[in-house]
Specification:
By secondary structure, the protein is an alpha+beta fold. The chain is 29% helix and 22% strand. Strands 1-5-2-4-3 form a 5-stranded mixed sheet. Strand 3 and strand 4 (63-67) form a beta hairpin. It starts with 6 loop residues before the first strand and ends in a 5-residue tail after the last strand.
């Protein structure tokens, strides 16, 4: 099911904030997090700067990281989409 609420990950959406959130909330592998375009680009840049290979689509702990193409997700927040709704 799509959760219509937007969840704040703190001051800035980052790889570590996403990892902490996924672990704390036990988000399932196969689910997706939708990020504001600016946050998505920030996370992508963060991965590039770390020297880790960038795999598209982005995936952290088996959770797909998706760019919000509709402009619905506010900066600094994420939307959770369970696997059966993507």
């Amino acid at each position: 099911m799509i959760m219509s609420e937007y969840v704040s990950l703190g001051k800035r959406v980052s790889v570590s904030a996403i990892r902490d959130y996924l672990f704390a909330k036990k988000i399932d592998k196969g689910d997706s997090l939708i990020l504001n375009i600016a946050d998505y680009e920030h996370v992508l840049e963060e991965i590039k700067k770390s020297g880790e290979p960038v795999d598209i689509p982005l995936n952290i702990f088996g959770v797909l990281i998706v760019k919000d193409r509709n402009g619905d997700v506010p900066i600094g927040k994420v939307q959770i989409v369970e696997d059966d709704k993507m």
